[in-house]
Each structure stands twice: as structure tokens, then as C-alpha cells.
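Entry 14. Structure prediction run on the chain below.
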Amino acid sequence: MSGVFVGMPAFPEAARTAVADATLRSNLRHATHTIRDKRARAVAELADWAELREAGRRIKEQTLRHLDRHLLRLEESVTAAGGTVHWAADAEEANRIVAGLVRATGETEVVKVKSMATQEIGLNEALAAEGIRAYETDLAELIVQLGDDRPSHILVPAIHRNRGEIRDVFRSEMGKWGRPAPDGLTDAPAELAEAARLHLREKFLRAKVGISGANFMVAETGTLVVVESEGNGRMCLTLPETLISVVGIEKVVPSWRDLEVFLQTLPRSSTAERMNPYTSMWTGTSDDDGPSAFHLVLLDAGRTDVLADETGRQALRCIRCSACLNVCPVYERAGGHAYGSVYPGPIGAILTPQLRGTASGIDASLPYASSLCGACYEVCPVAIDIPEVLVHLRERIVERGGPGHRRERAAMKAAGWVLDHPSLLAAGERLATRTRALHPRNPPGARAWTESRDLPELPAEPFRDWWRKNRT
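Output returned:
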């Protein structure tokens, strides 16, 4: 995944720093509560929401079970419509393909639609190394790029920034990337949006190459779909002469009828709208409209390995709505950067460790970045049981071993033996209550627990003794 996250500390350390940032917590609390409340109202309008959710789950699950077949059909359909399909096993190959396609046009700059896949593979950095400058055109992505920042949310990458911070970024950085911010720019939303619009317009009119991702790919017709709220995506998809789309292989759906379900559930779950203001669809190329060359780069980058895990592959059902982030108490307090990935929040906690593996400290810590409250599962429009996958990944990490995990297994084995011997357990309980005044607040080996939690106080007598005296 993207090089901008290389060297990030493990989640507990990063979260500790983030929680101490009062401005960050205020920004996150305001934004997530606003979005979640609007989403709840939008979903409540549909009497058949539960049925739509189940339909989405089934479509995604059946597609993943026969993904090879649907991808081959997609390739045939895209090729028949005049496009070219490229297969990329990993990020390095995908970046090499895209850079080669851009170089073949003779261009040194591209405009981009907001894309999680291109962030995942670090495409902007790879293009920069080849002398190609990529311009983000989504407003939030533009803020992140101008501020030399990292995205912290799936839907609203600059959610950690307030209006005053955005104004300061525009004032100081816009001129380095093109048209500068207007004199006297304030933090009024309309002025900030107009400054971005003026800054980007010259890039739209000049660019010969556009790069996008896609929310969905329809195997039946070879159609790609991008949903967005600003119109910048449509500019990138229609004005350039060459369009290159980098899309994860899990984004395919078999038919147009399947797409109908997601065009109802995605906007309500993400932006709390009945439909997206801009739903752009394109099928290959046309002599009369749009780009004259279209390339689709199908990205694996660990997804095939995820497919092999029957429990973990639920994560590939994700349609990137971000509803789980907006209800997560951990994300609200820690923010997206603490996850060390372009996929933050609950979905990132189960997707990133599967795509990248759990060899690094940050990736091994992500499945523990949850209270397992289940709010993420309740709002997921494709019914991904995120808590189930989190526990599953924790089990895999424990099985992988290590000194700490060996001690944990030994402790659990000892506890199991004691629980199998009621008389020994009773004696231990009585000894513990009689010596409770001597118990340390931070027992040896329990620091990971007691750092953030208080040990429960032992009662004056064990429950079994109290029951024996009072049950009659």
C-alpha cells in the first residue's frame, strides 16, 4: 500500500497521540455525528431497507464465489466495447502499467478522480518518480494533496481539517500547484469551494490524460460506474483524450440489475442522499464523445489471498460507503491516521491486515482497534460482520505466535485447569478475597490491560459463599 504510510507506529501508540489532540477530536466528533444522523434519516425513508441490504449481501457474496468467471466476462465486454484490459498482480505492476500508458501519450501530467485503489498502491508517488505530476480534483483530496497530508476517511479524506485550516492551506499552497487562492480568501464554505473550482478548471481544460477508479464494474456490458457529489469526476472522465481506470477486482457485479440495488444503498449509506448528484457511466470508447482511448487496470494486490479465507473475504463485499467509520467510537476518538492505511476505521481494521499481511506492528495491531460493540455491522449496507472478522483475525495473529502469545496461551491453559477443579477454584477465591488489601493495582504481566482499565474490586467474600449462606 501507499508509501505515505510507511513507518507508521502501531495503532495503540498512534491512537494515544491522536486522542490527545483536542482539535482533531472536535473535528471528528462534529463531522461523524452530523453524517451518521443524516444517514439514519435517509435510510428510514425506505421501508424495504433490510431487504435491499440482504440483496446487496447476496449479490456480493455470490459474485465473490465465482469471481474468476465474472472477471473474464468483464474483460470480454470491455474489449468488445473498444477498451483495453490490463491485469496487475500487485501495486508495483499496476504502477508500472499506468506509468507506461501515460508515457506513451507523451504527457507529463494527469487529472485524477478520487480513488481508493490508486491511493492503496501509491500511484501518485510512483508517477512522480517517473516525472509525471498527478492532480487530485476531488475537493477533499485536493485539500490533502495541497497540505502534504494523508487521507483520514474513506468518503471525506480531509475530515480531520476544519475550515480555518483549509483556508490556510489554500492560501499558502495553491500557488505552488497552479492558480493561487484569491486575495482575501476567508473560511466561508462557498469561498473555499470557488477557490478550488477556479484552481482546478485550468487543469481540466489542459489535461490530456485522466485517471480514475470505479465504484462498480458491470460484467454484462463492460460498463464502469463512478458516483460522486461535485462533478469533478465527470470532468476527468469526459474531457481527457485518454482515460485509465485502476479498479480492484472485487468491484465487479454481474449485471445491470445487480447495480440497481447498490445505487439505492450506497448514496444513503455514504452521503445520506437518495441518489448521488453525479452518477457517471462509460462503456469502452466512442468516436463521438469522451476519451478516444480507455484502459482498465484490474488490481489484485492481495485480494485473491483474501478470497481464500471464507470468514475474512467478507471484507471484499465493501462498497466504500464509510458508514462504519461514522458510528465507530474508536474511529471518532483516534481518527483515520492512526490506522496507518488508506482504509481507516472498522473496515480498514479487517481489510488492511488481509491485504498487507500481519508481519508489521501496525498491521498486527489493527484487528484489536475495536471495542467489538457491533455498531459497524448494524449500519453496513452489505452486512459485513466486521466484529466476526476482527475476532477471526485476532485468532490468526495469536496462532502466529510470539513470546507474548505463548504466555497468553500458558495462562489460558492454567485457567482452564483451575476451572475444571471446583474445589481448587473455591479455595483460590477465598484466598483472593482474604488478601485483597495486598493486591497490586498493576499486577505483573497485566500492563497491557491495566494501562487503560481499572481492575475490578474483589468483594469481601466469594459469591459461592454468599449464596450458600443466603439462598434460603
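The two ends are 64 Å apart (CA to CA).
Filed with the rest of this week's runs.
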